[in-house]
Write a structure and sequence with these properties.
By secondary structure, this protein is mostly beta strands. Helices cover 3% and strands 32% of the residues. The strands form two sheets. The protein has a six-stranded antiparallel barrel. A three-stranded antiparallel beta sheet has the order 1-5-6, with no helix packed on it. It is globular and about 50 Å long. The mean pLDDT is 95. It binds S-adenosylmethionine.
Length: 158
């Protein structure tokens, strides 16, 4: 276990491995109205905000046919999040919960996901609704959203 560096009561920090097991390429940036974490909505469900997904030119060919879908899954890199908390006490809870039982950006690999509505695609820029991240957040991937396989309306949650 790591020393107590900026942990709230009940939170647990760990030492992360010295190296990495894989590398990623940021394929673009997500442009949003939110300049700081505090400006952001808590999640996409609480956000009707419109943003732009700016994909780097080398990847534009990969956007072919994405306009056939009404919604997409964005995977993005929470570049301002710490990575060492394995139990956390989020602001809306009073007790610690395991990082893998939370949607917090703070996690060993700070990967976030959002199901966004595609409003339009022009060149390498998607205009989308329901963004929840800071302006300039790095983009890892885009996938089409399939309600048939990605939605579990009666899934249990606390
Ligand atoms: C609770 S997370 C949910 C993210 C994503 N929708 C998910 O479920 O994986 C959203 C919060 O992450 C924080 N956040 C947004 N952009 C960030 C960034 N680039 N780095 C670190 N934290 C960020 C903001 O506080 C925002 O309210």
């Amino acid at each position: 276990m790591a020393e107590t560096r900026d942990v709230r009561p009940g939170e647990v920090a760990i030492d992360l491995p010295a190296g990495f097991d894989a590398g990623v390429h940021f394929i673009g940036r997500i442009r949003t109205p939110f300049k700081t974490r505090g400006d952001c909505p808590r999640n996409t469900a609480q956000s009707d905000a419109v943003g732009r997904v700016e994909v780097e030119a080398r990847y534009w060919a990969g956007l072919k046919d994405l306009e056939l879908y009404s919604h997409a899954i964005l995977l993005y890199w929470m570049d301002q999040a710490r990575r060492d908390l394995i139990q956390q006490v989020p602001a809306h809870l009073t007790h610690p919960r395991g990082t893998f039982a939370l949607r917090s950006p703070v996690r060993p690999n700070p990967i976030a996901l959002a199901v966004v509505e595609i409003i339009g695609i022009e060149g390498g820029t998607l205009t989308v609704r329901h963004v929840d991240c800071i302006d300039g957040t790095p983009l890892l991937d885009i996938k089409p959203y399939f309600a048939s396989t990605d939605s579990v309306p009666d899934a249990r949650r606390p």
